Amino acid sequence: MRKRVLLRGLLVVILAFAAPSIIEQNAVASASGQPCSALLVSNDDAIRRTQVLVEQLIKDSYPELTNADIQVQTFASAADYFRSGFSVKRFLFGSKMRYFIRVNPRVFALNAPEAGVRAILAHELAHVYDFHRRKRIRLLGLMRLAMKSYTACFERRTDLQAIRRGYGAGLKAYRLWLYQNIPAESLAEKRRNYFSPEELDAIAARRTQQPEVLEYWFKRVPRNLQELHHATH
Ligand SMILES: [Zn+2]
Q1: From the CA of 195, how far away is ligand 1's center (Å)?
Q2: What is the dihedral of CA 134, 139, 141, 145, to 10 degrees?
Q3: CA of 24 relative to ligand 1 center, distance in Å
Q4: 40: CA distance to ligand 1 center in Å?
Q5: Which of 16, 59, 99, 192 has the largest CB neighbor count within 10 A?
Q6: What's the pTM value of the predicted model, to 2 decimals?
């Protein structure tokens, strides 16, 4: 019994440190230079627009998430527009899991392309799908993956899930827009952690010649153009 209490205590400590990392957080606090148009979309409006897209995406592309409890919330950032996570409280106390998709309303004020927004939401739903299909205890392993040194593999694999479901071209449109709408100092990190437009083109070209290569990439996630070109079985 004492062992179990100790174990639970240990779990709480681990989560207290690890949990924030499960929510994608590459936020750059500086909000300087934010255009006035950022004020035009309210939090409620951003939530409503995101909810509509999430519902449609689940219907079209993520039937596995039909009964998942997904809440949409807002956050503010100069460099991030969407994040995902799950309720740590529910995770710890064993109640039904609840997942979060968080939206930065500026994404709508800054006119991100609609296909791009749909694609990045398909990426966030790929995270939710990952949380949803894992047994609770294995979520701890997923948190480890979300930590910094694993971020690029973790995020690129999540991109692959969105690509597998038909959102590769949308991801490219999103990244082209994103690179124009983040502070210059965040660009290198975005290019490292997620597929760039050039890499997405290389993926599309390679798949037309060799469709099964996608499954290989899930096992060995390409971290750059070189690794994309040199994929072998
Ligand atoms: Zn992600």
Answers
A1: 11
A2: 100
A3: 6
A4: 26
A5: 99
A6: 0.81
Per DSSP, helices labelled H in the chain are 2-22, 43-61, 88-93, 106-109, 114-133, 139-146, 151-164, 168-180, 187-193, 197-209, 213-219, 225-229
The rounded Å distance from CA 10 to ligand 1 centre is 27
Distance 98 CA to ligand 1 centre (A): 17
Closest CA to 122 of 181, 54, 46, 172: 54
CB-CB neighbours of 209 under 10 Å? 7
CA of 3 to the centre of ligand 1 (A): 36
Distance 4 CA to ligand 1 centre (A): 33
H or E element in which residue 69 lies? strand 69-74
Distance 115 CA to ligand 1 centre (A): 17
Per-residue pLDDT of the chain (233 residues), as tens digits, is 455 555 555 554 444 444 444 444 333 333 444 555 445 899 999 999 999 999 999 999 999 999 999 999 999 999 999 999 999 888 888 889 999 999 999 999 999 999 999 999 999 999 999 988 876 666 666 666 666 667 899 899 999 999 999 999 999 999 999 999 999 999 999 999 999 999 999 999 999 999 999 999 999 999 999 999 886 54
User: Distance (Å, rounded) from C-alpha 206 to C-alpha 209?
Assistant: 5
